[in-house]
Each structure stands twice: as structure tokens, then as C-alpha cells.
Design a protein that fits this description.
By secondary structure, the chain is of the alpha/beta class. The longest helix has 18 residues, at about 105-125. The protein contains nine helices and eight strands. The protein is globular and about 45 Å long. Helix 7 (about 185-195) links the parallel strand 7 and strand 8 (about 200). An eight-stranded parallel β-sheet has the order 1-2-3-4-5-6-7-8. The structure holds nickel (II) ion. Nickel (II) ion (NI) binds near residues 8, 10 and 94. The site of nickel (II) ion (NI) has 5 residues, from loops.
């Protein structure tokens, strides 16, 4: 059976409160035998840790989301650092910059982003990057903070091929989600078609970014199979091969052995 790795999901989200266990079971039964849940604020970090402790196949990333930068206190960074010694915590994030929602001023976002990269270098963990309409500043800060020493993943990559190359040069993997299943999503498909196969990951970002044909409905981790299918087609390889390669890539990226 095809083994899939959903490298970015938010199973703790309130939209799963009614049926979280069924959603997780459905993903597992669909072959999603590894998942990374993202805890990225004061509420979602404890629920992420609880999920990682309950399910052997769910791992955790913990960090601070850029839209919520304004609420991160110094003790939150200490909290994240402590959690990094937990055996199920494989990465710090999601972190980064979001210029779409202006809930946190840019200079606060930059500071919180830099602090988390420094922490990741200190504890030697890969990082999960959220980038919305901030390509240039993301690349600049990653360079300035020497993020290539730890690497990680550009989650739901939405940049150009040029940006993709810069990320690859800094030891980052590129993760693709629901948009590669959309008819009108030309750029992510072109990037996915052009980058090295051994640097590609797949994800759902559930409950957001639902793949075709469920677009508009709630996303869930079992739908990573739809992303895998689309990615295999774009790369001209079998689903089995795509699944195997991306799962291996994910294990390497997050140093899970
Ligand atoms: Ni996310």
C-alpha cells in the first residue's frame, strides 16, 4: 500500500472538534502513516503536543505564527525551547512573514521570525516557513540569520522558480499542497515540475487549502492523497513512486530515523 506523509496539518483546529478521531483514523486508513501537526500559538501548541503523545504516527512542530507575532512574549520562546527536547517535536514553526493579514506590524514579524531562527540554530532543529506575499524579506532574513545551517521546509510553496532555487540553495525542501490540484494554479505546478524530486514534500495544511474536487469544503489529512496524485501526474511518475520519494524526503527533512 502507498505510504503517504502529510508534512503540515492542523488537526488541533476547532473545525475538527466534532470528529477529530474519525478524521485521523480516515487519514491513517487512506495510507497517511505519518503526519506533522503544527502548533503555532498559545492555544494550538498544547493541543498539538497532546495529539503527538496520543498517536504514534503524529509528530509535532512548535513555533509562533507570523500573523500572531504581536502576542509572542519572551517566555513563549522559552516554552518552545523546552518543548524541543520532547522526542516527538521534529521542527520549529510555523514561523515566517505574512504581509496579507496586517494583524502584526512588519517589524514585530521580523523580530519574532529572527528569534525563532536563532532558537532553531541553538537547538539544531529544522524550521517550517510560512511565507505570504513576503518572498524578498523571507529570503533576506533566512540568509542573514544563516538558516541554511539548519534547513527545513518552505510550507505550501507559492513563489517563483527563481525563489525556489534560492530556497533550495539554503538547504530547504519545498512543500506542495492543494493548489497543485487547481486548474488555474500555473506557477506552483511549473515550480513542482522543475525542482529536484528529492527536495519535494507534500502536505494538506488542513483544514485550509482544500484540494480539488473538495475545494470550498473543510480540508483533512486523508486528502494528501489527492495532492500526491496531482504531483505524480505533473512529474510523470507513478503515485507509488511519488509517495515513496516524498515520504523519504520528509523523514530526511525532519531527521526522523
Ligand atoms: Ni499551516
Amino acid at each position: 500500500m502507498t505510504l503517504l506523509f502529510d508534512t503540515h496539518t492542523h488537526l488541533d483546529a476547532a473545525r475538527f472538534n466534532e470528529d477529530r478521531e474519525e478524521v485521523i483514523q480516515r487519514a491513517y486508513d487512506a495510507g497517511v502513516k505519518l503526519m506533522i501537526n503544527i502548533g503555532c500559538d498559545r492555544e494550538s501548541i498544547p493541543t498539538t503536543m497532546a495529539l503527538a503523545e496520543k498517536y504514534s504516527f503524529i509528530y509535532a512542530a512548535v513555533g509562533w505564527h507570523p500573523v500572531d507575532s504581536i502576542h509572542m512574549k519572551p517566555e513563549d520562546l522559552d516554552w518552545i525551547e523546552e518543548l524541543c527536547s520532547h522526542p516527538k517535536v521534529v521542527a520549529i514553526g510555523e514561523m515566517g512573514l505574512d504581509y496579507h493579514w496586517d494583524t502584526s506590524p512588519k517589524e514585530v514579524q521580523h523580530r519574532v521570525f529572527r528569534e525563532q531562527i536563532r532558537l532553531a540554530r541553538k537547538v539544531n532543529k529544522p524550521i517550517v516557513i510560512h511565507n505570504r506575499e513576503a518572498h524578498e524579506d523571507i529570503i533576506r532574513i533566512l540568509k542573514e540569520e544563516k538558516a541554511s545551517e539548519i534547513g527545513g521546509v518552505m510550507h505550501c510553496f507559492s513563489g517563483s522558480l527563481e525563489t525556489a532555487k534560492q530556497c533550495l540553495d539554503m538547504n530547504f525542501y519545498l512543500s506542495f499542497g492543494g493548489p497543485v490540484t487547481y486548474k488555474n494554479a500555473r506557477v506552483p505546478k511549473e515550480v513542482l515540475a522543475a525542482v529536484p524530486l528529492h527536495r519535494i514534500l507534500i502536505e494538506t495544511d488542513s483544514p485550509y487549502l482544500t484540494p480539488h474536487p473538495f475545494r470550498g469544503k473543510r480540508n483533512e489529512s486523508s486528502y494528501v492523497a489527492l495532492v500526491a496524485n496531482a504531483a505524480a501526474e505533473i512529474r510523470g511518475i507513478s503515485l507509488e513512486e511519488l509517495a515513496q520519494i516524498t515520504t523519504e524526503n520528509g523523514k530526511k527533512c525532519f531527521r526522523m530515523d
